[in-house]
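ugh ok fine here u go
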Amino acid sequence: MPNPYFRFKQFTIRHDRSAMKVGTDGVLLGAWASLCKKASQSKTNILDIGTGTGLIALMLAQRFPMAVIEGVDIDDASIEQAKENVKSSPFSLRISIEKKDFNSIESFSNKYDLIVSNPPFYQEDTLGGNHARDAARHTTSLPFETLIENASLLLTKQGVFSVILPSGEASHFIAICATYGLYLEHRTDIQSTPQKLSKRVLLAFMKDYHFTVAIDSLTLYDGQGNRTSEYNQLTEDFYLMDYQVIIDKYYPIDNELKHILMQHSRQVADKALDIVDKHPELNADRQFVEEAAMLHDIGIFRCDAAGIQCFGTEPYICHGTIGAQLLRAEGFPHHARVCERHTGAGLSLEEIIAQNLPVPHCDLLPETIEEQIICYADKFFSKTKLHTEKTLEQAIRSLSKFGEEGVARFVKWSEIFG
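structure:
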């Protein structure tokens, strides 16, 4: 039996009663669709046509804090479940879900800065007998021409109309859009793997004609079935990360080094999560804290530190920047920042130059509250004494080798996190 819900970082989608379940197409459109630059900096109106579970509406509410989103659908069960999903999310005050048929726009009183749709695209001869599912998937419920004409009437002057379609429908859809004064602005062709042809395409249209169209591609999985770095980067703010998959990739052998890494990372993660739970006023991202804490030392295997079974060639102080390079290559730039900014209590450019450290010459200081919490928690544990947590005084003494600036930062954090 399929799972009745799908957890994302900031919300959960229940889809057991909806005509259409959570799928890759919806996630891609929700993560890819964009407002024009001017609209993204002010209050905006967004319309999600065929909202289904409310997935795309919720993703856009997360991405655009100034936006008010309206999701519409014709299926009663989907509408009710989308309302429940929205109500249980942090974005309920900015999203409304209504039963409306986009074949007629008389009941739509707003103009929209962004209109999105994962539209029905199957033809009548593929009807399967499930009325709700057929309506969600087949053009008989909303023909392309009707969708495009009505979208063009409801868009603001600088508005964007974005869809995801089968690749074979793209040329036909682009041609119809042009007849209604909507011109292609951005196209991304989606390949499931490098060896396969594109089966889906993301399209964005505007009312102004663009002499130069942005055309690119996105491959979702590599030859081993792992998400590509570009897919991870696009969906980083939504999909829950499986940090264990990344650890296993770089530490495939269950040896003493992996044991040290896992135990130390778990200790740091647990202390960091304890701080998050004790200080809700900090409004820290709990999920991110756990993920980043479990990965903050991912780069140690390339370093020369025989005492903890690391037999690489790089100086140990470089493990943070090495880890950051690995995680950026995996498509997780926010997690990478934690790697490169947890050495000592962070390192300023002045400290790096004064101590002639073999790391990039730039400030490597924890800036976000999550970066600061993880850096602070890390100072209480040593990979050479796995079963011991340092006292505050011991942690301060260990930090003193990096200079007084770092000690001062750490003491300040202790007053906030302690």
